[in-house]
Amino acid sequence: MWVPIALGRDVPRGATRAVLLEGEELVVWRGEAGTVQVWEDRCPHRGMRLSFGFVRGDALNCLYHGWEYGAGASCRRIPAHPDLTVPPTIRAKAFAATETGGLILVDRDGTGGPPPLMLAGLPVASLAIAADPETLFQLVPATPRPDPQLVEATLDGVRFHLGWHVPGPGRIMLHALVLDPGAESRALIALHKLRSEAEARRAA
Ligand code: FES
Fold this sequence. Notes:
By secondary structure, this protein is mainly beta. Helix content is 12%, strand content 39%.
């Protein structure tokens, strides 16, 4: 299943970002050429978080001992053994990833089929909300898309694309893009109002 996990804007070229998805730690990173990758946030060597690492060109380097992981998450260089041909079995765990309409999505279990296609929106914010999706979407007049965690919605007169993921129980991370140019400020106000209402409803 394809799950939105970040706004593309928030992972610029050469950057890494840690994402918690249903308790699983992921690293989202973008090589200098612009391609987004999503891997388990764990170095196969000694378990260091790869999100602490650094990007050089099209590779992600672990901060601890500098092992370098390239396309497909294979380790291609071990600085302490520069002449070693690294066995292909040494690799990080990579997941299928795609980017559409300003959102980054991951398919962890490989059941998502063709990646979704969305119209480009203007990124507004990824907002952490202390509520579950059922509570939140009782408050959102939304039109579901064919993809399970994407909807089109209108809040306070602003048209949104909303994607979301669940970091853990009772929590939601909402990724919001607007379809109306110039509406970003009103959109941010509408999103914060929505968060307040969802968290108040959950607490009631
Ligand atoms: S823990 Fe990553 S290179 Fe050693």
